[in-house]
């Protein structure tokens, strides 16, 4: 059959008729003949592939609104009108309703705000319906309401054309985002709609024989509209003699498409929900070879048809509305009940051709009516629904009063577990209540002289959103409850007399009312259409919606990610994430570590672990089990196992590669590929033990055909031409590469065919080919000979995780990395790790959209992570405060997530904060600008520190690439986590405190001070000076001391430093001898010791640095002076093994001299340390301690003539100027008219010259070269007397002289 199909696919005839799919014709539908030319033109607009359906529709429309401001009525909402409609209140409940009078084909909308104002809508959604009550959202392809882009001011017109036209009479515009106020001027565009419709009664159908004109198509398009109140039914079916078929059917109020191209592999696609609501739904099926798209009410899914064939071959019958017999591909066997309208098969209107055969070619529209199809779509008044919108809603209907029996039936659909369906109080004593409890239907009967009776006979739940029929019949001693045509009878002693009223859906005090839809409410055989209900028969119009069902299926398409189970009620949906490996409101956040390195970071003491890892976090790849091993040398190995890790025997396979073993891993190939790409290195051990069994069949020339007996297959399904331990393309094993094979003429040990066991193997290190997908072996003879082999394949081993090596340092608080825009959509997340020492508020991440949407992640005060965002409902935020510091220069992780239900922040995998999404339309977050990492988009409030492992929606953001992509780097950002302390700027043992944009040196535990611990703390000692440190009761006893002192002198008086115990009389003194040598004397109770350093004279006035250290339990002493080799002294000869070498009860520490000495040291002393005690720093600090004293008290600090070392200043880092496109600038100059430019410059020059002349004349208007006797300074006087008084020269002015003696 397959061969016949392939032959047919190549026939020229099949190519010619490939466009005649399912009976539609290519171009011949234009033979339609209509007496009315207007009708013909309307159908042409509807059927035309061109966008000709764009007539204005608002002129004849009736416009209403939910509210209106004064003198801003809905009638003013006309495009280019003088005023506009303005809502009285600006909130999400405001809407403009347009009644077009009849059903129209609406193709576009144009919006305008109020003229010359800031009153306009920025964003809006559209709903449509047939009666102004049954509103349906115009949806995105993912099922969420589509949000249309509005205006940017009050005057500019913004037009949106619909991808798929709206076919409706009523249009509602609901603003979701606006400027100052909601104001609208608008126009709808479209044309008349011609409904060609047939009604099918559940037994009728139409069919066409395809034997004469069979179908062999590569591409198909099917469009139709249908409405029904039945949840099952076959809509379209056809099949071919080669096993091809296409089946479109309604299954439990969802649309199911089954298609098979003859490969015996069925492809199924299901879409839609609540399609049995008796409203028209639009269906589009589009196939291009094996790619197929199914769309229901603009919600779209796509799939790839299974198998290898591309053509759909149909040569049996084409059925519409049902099938006469059971056929392949059908799930339900009921025929369709309802109306099918405007069914197009590749632009051919089948129903129009069936209804008007004179206008269409009978060769392609010869359909046979089976069972009585009705032209038109009759109204079924029994299916008119009513919606109970709130628990307090109720309907009160009347029945026969005083009857001894009752019969009540209804159909309902709901997602609530609890609610009252029916309550009736008898005229006699008692009542009956039909209600839902825990989604089960129960009946409570209370009557006179009998105990209370509760009927709970149906072990099933009914809150699944489907229509269910319930009927309660009661008579004497009998009650029958029927649900979905399944009766359950109860007999009790029971007599009733009915009352007058029946409460439907609610109306009882403290009783949960029903929330959902009902229809066909019948009491004692009487049915009253809801539109005929009087006002007093139901609670209010706010609680009850007549002639429409407002139940919404929030779980279709499933909003829960990663296989989460969606549950819902009348208000919201919620996701059950158990067993998925994910958590959160929509099962978006992974519960598992991203790698073994991630696990190690959280468990630093671990050495081995078996865990679950999720390499892409919230991405589409599922978690998988792995083994982690951590080594002291820093290696972190991830092991991914498989089913064939044990050594496996190969015997009885003689042909080359005839033994095949497919390797099944604990992870899919996509998961392992992601792991391998993220790892630093990957290997896999492979070995083959052989006895007379050849492997690669070597040697073989590189130009010869390579035909091995055994080989391994890479993950690309490529047979590899080398064995483990060797190199690609070598055609060798490891021994052949090293030249140590058992047979020197062979390239593998096994190729020698030796009688005893040999082995070839090693590690496959080329990670681009890993993991091993399959193994093939041959040359193992039969079970009776001596040929045999055994293979062993180890797990995949991968080292490291480059995600955590993707580290950058922000050195400037006005620097940032600009990443491409991100898609946060309905749900998105960002994971990253940071470390810093700054306590100021810093922006870590910022992105914004042109519509005002934004996200921002900030570190506040060093212990708060704040996530702020907006998606059209005002700014929202969630903050997590930690009990510890986040500015401690340690790595901390942050995960921020926003979905349609909540926003969430998780810090260090444990501390969580979340906020619910505000009430309002669920909209995707539109961030169409760059994502800024390290600062805001204005380069302010920037982060200073390191960031690594940034993952956005499961995809790693390559920060290193962004920094290195230009040769000049990136301003203020460096690779790795390296701050200012990397060059060890702090001297003399000072501790560098990293600031990343600066550094600070902690000199507390050094005898220095200054910005880099290089400034001397010294004292210029005189003969009467003394500094004394008193241990004050905390007597110090040491077995090892560390002494440091620097000095300069020319006089051997006194000593440099000394320690003394008045309790044990033990002491230590460091001094300059009379000969100018350095002398150390001490007595620790075992024997007086004296060491003299004679390498240099120390009285020359030069500065010297001395370090002394006693070690080895006090038995050895090291003295190092300046840069001389240290001298080590041992006291083993004078100190017995059992002797005590401890310096006991040290009470005083002296500098310069002690109280018993008349003359002290003369010179400068600095850098004094005795173990942890730094006496000079303690003396000269701002508030010196009471246990250190100086004699005299006027001793001042001195730097001993040593100039402090300064750290060389860093070169100032500046931002690179923006690149200038010189070609564009030259183009602008070239396009400028040189003559015009020259004239303009000449005019400007002349004007400047004239202006300069006028200014000069004004400045010199009183100057001249003439002789006058007029007093200087009197030119502005009013009269002569004043001129004399003001004059500076003249007869009354005397020349003054001054004399300096």
From TrEMBL:
The chain crosses the membrane at residues 1235-1255. Residues 197-377, 384-549, 806-977, 1018-1200 form the Laminin G domain. It is found in: Membrane. It holds the Pfam family Laminin_G_2. GO terms for cellular component: membrane. The keyword Membrane applies. Keywords: Disulfide bond, EGF-like domain, Membrane, Signal, Transmembrane, Transmembrane helix. InterPro entries: ConA-like_dom_sf, EGF, FA58C, Galactose-bd-like_sf, Laminin_G, Neurexin-related_CASP. Residues 551-588, 978-1014 form the EGF-like domain. Residues 45-191 form the F5/8 type C domain. It is a single-pass type I membrane protein. The keyword Transferase does not apply. Belongs to the neurexin family. This is Neurexin-4. It comes from Tigriopus californicus (Marine copepod).
